[in-house]
Amino acid sequence: MNKTKTLLKNLGPGLLFASMAIGTSHLVLSTKAGAQYGWLMVIPIILANVLKYPFFEFGIRYTNVTGKSIIEGYRNRGRGFLWLYALITLATSIATPAALVSITAGLVINLFGIQGVSIGTVALGLFVFNSAILIIGKYKFLENTLKFLIPILFIALLATTVLVINKGPITPITNFQPPQFFDELGVLFLITLIGWMPTAVEASSWLSLWSVEKYRINTTKPPLREALQEFNFGYLMTTILAILFMVIGAMTLFGSGTELSGRAVTFADQVIQLFTTHIGSWAHIFIAVSAFATMYSTCLTCHDAISRVSIDIIDKLASENNTYTDKKYYTMAVIILAVISIVVLFALSANMGLIISVATAVSFVLAPIVGYMNLKNVMSSDLPEVLQPHKRLQLLTYAGILFLSLLAIYYGWIVLF
């Protein structure tokens, strides 16, 4: 009972991580993995979550021990590290909020049957609403909102999965042949799945900054063991949700012969149509709530995190002191990010796919470097040796770096040749 109370008291960064990570990587990639390749895909989903675990854990560890953001740790290792991370953030953040909100707006229209309103109008409304939530409520309100939203998502998705399993798998079409797992397309999909499961590695700094803010609000920080316990809870929830989405895909789509769209909104609509056909229209609400809660929670946390990261990077590049300035400039950052995202959404929507492709490629290729930077931080003199990662976690980190490096090399080979 005491452990449960401690966990609930410390809920925050791990919960925000879970809500952020379960966006398109879960709704689209996990569901598509089960839909195209069946139950076999549970292996790479678990493998990706295990191998990338240390990179995110280090964001919590560094901040809990030092009281500073991991971005400050990059600067301590050398300004080159900080500039590299700034470039990664710029490349991956310029269109991400616009893309996420446009997907969410499309889901709102498709799932809830809204007529006569464009995706752009709904997206604009979401940006205004999200900005108001973040500016008025700040971190505390965001955390409390997600404490309410994530259980709804988890329950709705669990209910959906139970209904699917209870109904049983669909009957495959005549002469159904599953796609080859180890041909070029299969391997490329596998690389994409692992690269974005549970999320991009640079999000480790988001965890760090959420921890800084939680400790500032509470005026105290929990022991490292308790902080890691809370993160592990969120990380485990993220993994379980990925598996649940995969199960839904495997049970309702694998063998159907349906050609799945690469667009998140269209794909979600396909999943819901097939799901309601398989189970019954009465069950529409469960998958609709699951899909919407998945994307909306990601939009909200992403907007908050990118605002915080941008402030911290600018602060560390501009000054040599250790001032954390988001308290003063957070409102400005939220508004600026919303305005930039709205401009990107309306002015560059035709090229959104290309922008996102470039951003995701940069993030994926440089993921092993960010992982190595995080390892350098937690193995530095900034942390007492007793609080540095143990040998097994270090070995898992090197395994993850090697694995992601090989995937990045192969990805580059396919793209270039």
UniProtKB/TrEMBL annotation:
<keyword id="KW-0812">Transmembrane</keyword>
<keyword id="KW-0472">Membrane</keyword>
<dbReference type="Pfam" id="PF01566">
    <property type="entry name" value="Nramp"/>
</dbReference>
<feature type="transmembrane region" description="Helical">
    <location>
        <begin position="185"/>
        <end position="212"/>
    </location>
</feature>
<feature type="transmembrane region" description="Helical">
    <location>
        <begin position="274"/>
        <end position="296"/>
    </location>
</feature>
<feature type="transmembrane region" description="Helical">
    <location>
        <begin position="114"/>
        <end position="136"/>
    </location>
</feature>
<feature type="transmembrane region" description="Helical">
    <location>
        <begin position="329"/>
        <end position="348"/>
    </location>
</feature>
<keyword id="KW-1133">Transmembrane helix</keyword>
<feature type="transmembrane region" description="Helical">
    <location>
        <begin position="148"/>
        <end position="165"/>
    </location>
</feature>
<protein>
    <submittedName>
        <fullName>Mn2+ and Fe2+ transporters of the NRAMP family</fullName>
    </submittedName>
</protein>
<dbReference type="InterPro" id="IPR001046">
    <property type="entry name" value="NRAMP_fam"/>
</dbReference>
<feature type="transmembrane region" description="Helical">
    <location>
        <begin position="81"/>
        <end position="108"/>
    </location>
</feature>
<dbReference type="GO" id="GO:0016020">
    <property type="term" value="C:membrane"/>
</dbReference>
<feature type="transmembrane region" description="Helical">
    <location>
        <begin position="395"/>
        <end position="416"/>
    </location>
</feature>
<feature type="transmembrane region" description="Helical">
    <location>
        <begin position="40"/>
        <end position="60"/>
    </location>
</feature>
<feature type="transmembrane region" description="Helical">
    <location>
        <begin position="233"/>
        <end position="254"/>
    </location>
</feature>
<dbReference type="GO" id="GO:0046873">
    <property type="term" value="F:metal ion transmembrane transporter activity"/>
</dbReference>
<feature type="transmembrane region" description="Helical">
    <location>
        <begin position="354"/>
        <end position="375"/>
    </location>
</feature>
